[in-house]
Specification:
Strand content: 15-25%
Helix content: 40-55%
Strand order of the largest sheet: 2-3-1-9-8-10
Distance between the termini: 38 Å
Largest sheet: 6 strands, antiparallel
Number of helices: 27
Number of strands: 17
Length: 623
């Protein structure tokens, strides 16, 4: 796991600029740094930079940017190609001679042998920039599920790219202009979905996307996407037992591949199905006890550590629990903008940072259970959507009455969150997005931007029924843009590599083809995963209502952070900032204070996290 950045433009820059840019994310790769600078025949200058977290071949042979033996290809790579040994054998049979034990070198020779289409052979998590000196072109590539991040800025003449936004902000000429549409989306969804970023002219490369730069042109295409898989994949028609057997084999192989490492590795272990299953598979494949880590809290209502310890003892792992006070978590709030250099309001980011810090004291790689909920129907919200479907008759009545009276406007003005949702229950897609739509009805003009809900609905029409549509929604937006972003920033902040076996694209494709009843039966979510787990761990040991790294953010807002809320919502700060409608912002705060509910507190938390981010990256606001 590493950090990368670079630029292509007609102006010439010194090596010092590349070092300054890449050192903005030094925590992503503390073991080594390198740059590559070349004046291209077409008149452009190319710069590539790299910070290395050494995982494979810890010697200097792994230094990047790496150049192929022929000198034709240069790559700066972040991530892991888990099947690199298999690919290496294939390339050696074709005459390639390897000098290192890295997967980076496999990328170089795979490209020179198969072209950019080689990326479809890679099983891994990755984001890389590859320069072909013969073709005079540069490729930016991101893995299928979007595990590893890659941002890019272009003004039509210049292309600047990086693993995070901070190196791009360091580039001369970059203009830190807030994209108000992206800001509106963030406030409504708690993260920025799709290709947008918080800054204008700056985008995220989408999961499974390739960008090709050639002199005078930039083009992009997807080599893999969930909708494409759904459209072309044959549904699984085997029995439930056959599905279990095939999925079990896939998970075991995915775990085996992710245990390849030249540094110590372990696993995050909660009392949930996904992490318990991954840990069980790891222990079955290991000759020694696997290192496992759990963070617990002194406040017992948020603590699952004892239950995790029982699972660890049963499996025989080398387990460590750290009990933290919420005060330790609170201290992290003001640090979040440094590592989350794009606004992110998921409260569990704090707990994820805490468990990452703990694990990094012992290991350099940690496996996790991410993606089990999105692939196998694990979220409680899915059941809530089914309940909302039963209110569609009331919704039709509300919309009919609205033709005679401005009911929606009146309800939105009074800020009745649940009542506003009733105007949006037109179909399954609208039900899934009802919270977003209701937020837009109530506060949509707060930042002067427009929210494009179509980004959430690209894959949903391919699902049959509201459960499948909801999973597709989360798999294509919430998972890459919230969950995976959160884990990447939290783990890389302490130079820890995290690996998620359930994100192996073979498992994703298999899960997408499974009948719904293999995932959900008689209200039992994640049915097939649970049955695989119960073959390893007694059912009584596994929590049925996992909390998932919850923190009491609503209490924090009322008590510890009340002074921050008062300042960032104050008319003085808002007018000086000039981003938000003061009246609408006050309306949000008033609703929170009147109701004192978690839903309204979450809106205030989301706004507060943006304000902390803004003050960090626009420090003049405090002068």
């Amino acid at each position: 796991m590493c950090g990368i950045c670079g630029f292509i433009e007609k102006k010439s820059h010194s090596e010092a600029l590349l070092f300054d840019m890449i050192d903005e994310i030094r925590y992503r790769g503390p073991d080594d740094r390198g740059i590559y600078l070349e004046q291209l025949p077409c008149g452009y200058q190319l710069g590539l930079a790299h910070r290395r977290l050494a995982i494979l071949d810890l010697s200097v042979n792994g230094h990047q940017p790496m150049i192929s033996e022929s000198g034709r290809t240069v790559v700066s790579f972040n991530g892991e190609i888990y099947n690199f040994k298999e690919l290496r054998r294939q390339l050696e049979q074709k005459g390639c001679c390897f000098r290192t034990g890295t997967d980076t070198e496999v990328i170089l020779y795979a490209y020179e042998t198969w072209g950019i289409e080689a990326v479809q052979r890679f099983n891994g998590m990755f984001a890389f920039a590859l320069y072909d000196r013969e073709a005079q072109c540069v490729y930016l590539v991101r893995d299928r599920m979007g595990v590893k991040p890659l941002y890019y800025y272009t003004d039509g003449e210049t292309l600047v790219f990086a693993s995070e936004l901070k190196p791009i902000m360091k580039y001369p000429g970059f203009r830190k202009e807030i994209d108000r549409d992206a800001l509106t989306m963030y406030l409504a969804a708690e993260y920025i979905p799709g290709s947008r970023s918080i800054f204008r002219n700056t985008s995220k490369l989408l999961p499974g996307e390739i960008l090709q730069w050639s002199p005078g042109s930039i083009r992009k295409w997807r080599y893999w996407s969930v909708p494409e898989v759904m459209e072309h994949q044959t549904a699984f028609h085997g029995s439930y037992e056959e599905a279990k057997e095939e999925l079990n084999a896939l998970i075991e192989d995915a775990v085996r591949l992710r245990m390849i490492s030249d540094v110590p590795l372990g696993a995050f272990l909660s009392n949930g199905v996904d992490s318990s299953l991954i840990t069980a598979k790891m222990q079955s494949l290991s000759a020694a006890p696997v290192k496992t880590f759990t963070v617990g809290f002194r406040e017992t209502v948020f603590d699952e550590s004892r239950a995790a310890e029982l699972v660890a003892a049963y499996l025989g792992t080398d387990h460590e629990t750290r009990i933290l006070s919420m005060d330790e978590g609170k201290k992290l709030l003001l640090e979040l903008p440094l590592y989350y250099d794009e606004p992110m309001a998921d409260p569990s980011a704090i707990a994820t940072m805490l468990v990452s810090r703990m694990a990094r004291e012992h290991v350099t790689v940690a496996l996790s259970g991410d993606a089990g909920d999105e692939l196998f129907c694990g979220y409680n919200t899915y059941t809530h959507f089914e309940k909302l479907r039963k209110l569609r008759g009331i919704s039709r009545g509300f919309r009919a009455a609205e033709k005679l009276l401005p009911l929606r406007e009146a309800v939105a003005r009074r800020n009745r969150r649940e009542w506003v949702k009733l105007f949006h229950l037109t179909d399954d897609e609208a039900i899934i997005d009802a919270d977003l739509s209701a937020w837009l009805d109530r506060y949509g003009d707060i930042a002067g931007g427009r929210a494009d809900l179509s980004v959430f609905r690209l894959a949903m029409p391919l699902g049959e029924g509201i459960y499948e549509k909801a999973m597709l929604h989360d798999l294509t937006t919430y998972l890459p843009d919230d969950v995976l972003t959160k884990v990447d920033r939290a783990s890389m902040a302490v130079s820890l590599e995290t690996r998620a076996p359930l994100l192996d694209y073979r498992i994703v494709e298999f899960a997408l083809g499974l009948p719904l009843e293999y995932k959900l039966q008689n209200g039992e979510k994640k049915r097939i995963l649970k049955d695989l787990l119960y073959a390893e761990v007694p059912k009584r040991m596994i929590g049925q209502n996992k909390m998932g790294f919850r923190i009491p953010f609503a209490d924090w807002l009322r008590k510890d952070y009340n002074h921050l809320v008062q300042w960032y919502f104050s008319e003085e700060f808002l007018r000086k900032q000039g981003l938000f409608d003061v009246a609408v912002t006050k309306k949000m705060l008033q609703s929170y204070r009147k109701t004192n509910t978690t839903d309204y507190a979450r809106e205030v938390w989301t706004f507060l996290l943006f304000q902390l981010w803004y003050e960090h990256y626009f420090p003049d606001i405090s002068k």
